[in-house]
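Protocol step 6 of 9: fold each sequence in the batch and record its structure tokens directly after the sequence line. For illustration, a two-sequence batch is reproduced in full.

Sequence one:
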Amino acid sequence: MSTIQIKPELLHALTELQGDSFTVAVLTTYYLDRPESPHKSKKPARQFVYRNMVRLMKAGLMEKLPDDGGWPKYQLTQKFRSQYSSIKKPASALSTLPPKAAPPVKALAKAKPKEIPPKKPVAALRERLSKHRSDMLCALGEAEEYESLCKELPEFSEEAQSLYAEARERSALLLGKIKALESLLSSNNLR
């Protein structure tokens, strides 16, 4: 059974999420939380993570879950678990190194339960914040379009005006949610 090369910091993030479903944003957050991650900003990290997720799906190591109306969710397959379950190497090791690096792995595995609980809620908050930001941009774009339509097509002005008001109201509500999540994350130094 051939294995594909996975960067150690990404492999560590994936092993932390084994058994859970996750979004691209959640996996990116876990990846960025690794101190040895070469990416420091979100956009290139997200692109790197997504490219690797596509590779993993092509290799049958990850699958996209059925659409539930939210952000697409993914899960590692049994094939991934069988190939990589014993590979929980320190970040400096490659995912294809022989098992002689086993002693540090056991120390890492013992420390793992203490790391995960604080990260999962933070990752969920960050994912929620990301979704609210995206929804707010959508609502603002919608409001701008209604405003533009009111000027261009006065015959639809009355309908567009009420839809414009609804979109603005939605964006204001989302802005409040965003501020609440940002305050929570920054007050607890979770960013």
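Sequence two, same batch, same settings:
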Amino acid sequence: MDIIEQARKILNTTYIPWLELDLEFPVDLWKQQVLEVEPYFNEYRQSDSSQWSSCCLHGLGIDKTYTADNYGYDEYNAPYQYTDLAYKTPAITVFWKYQFPAERYSRIRFMKIGPGGHIDWHNDGNLPPGIEPLDAVLPINLAITHPLNCEMEIEGHGVVPWKEGKIFMINISKNHAVFNRSSKSRVHMIANIILGNRKKEFCEMFVRCYNKQYGQI
């Protein structure tokens, strides 16, 4: 199997709960730049959570944090672009523009859970039949701040081993929840990626990380 076929087989047959990616970013610098974002957070999914808020680095607007269909567009063809937050967070923007192996993005969001906040148990559904996973919009989750006593749980699999600076691909089709039992905010980023012409590059990273964590496919 070539590298793309290996990645496709992992996605289609292993149903792993999470995969840590071996990319790095300067956490301390990102923490400084996130301070510039603080005034732009808006409450997110009030019925499913408490103290959960979001804003967009890349999207239909800073405050348009939901999927494109909520604003009359198709997720794959919406006029997504970098928002004015890109000027306030240049190092973060460079990472997504040039360093992460994806051709383009739908939403890239800052996601904050305040002290004592939580995200209720939920899942984000499966891909519709006939959609090739490597051509779908895939979620990447990155931890800028992640205090002790803040846990993300995947039903049947336990707690995701988060630490500041870690990047995970989370299987959001599985039931998951987050509980911030600390006195500090947790700030992550979620990037919804479309691989496009960087599919092979992404698959090389994906298979390498899978083999490291779960053994040879």
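Proceed to step 7 once all outputs are recorded. Observation for sequence two: The chain has a mean pLDDT of 95.
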